[in-house]
Write a structure and sequence with these properties.
By secondary structure, the chain is mostly beta strands. The chain is about 0% helix and about 45% strand. The strands form 2 sheets. Strands 2, 4, 5, 6, 9, 10 and 11 form a 7-stranded mixed β-sheet that branches. Strands 1-3-8-7 form a 4-stranded antiparallel β-sheet, with no helix packed on it.
Amino acid sequence: QLQLVESGGGLVQPGGSLRLSCTASGFTLDYHAIGWFRQAPGKEREGVSCISTSGGITDYADSVKGRFTISRDNAKNTVYLQMNSLKPEDTAVYYCASNVKFYCLGYEIDNYKYWGQGTQVTVSS
């Protein structure tokens, strides 16, 4: 069964940091472009960041640019989202998604075929 699994979420104070991980179960991510999305209560799912298969192409939503960093370690079959300077408005369930494409796929949900179950990130004092 092909599955993405997110981890690393939790409760953090404003200004703090978290690193999310996205690991593949049952397949290799080597040929998958990856996206991170988030969904806050009562809001639509929105794209946060994406990365190409090689890791050489990345993109960020304006709301996280300069604070979040996406990276991947294909040897570990894992993609990371380092989140710094977290704000209360970053509170959401964070999802990773993938598809067998080379380039960063942007933030259209339909561009992604595989999805994880999500990990909760709460930024609060």
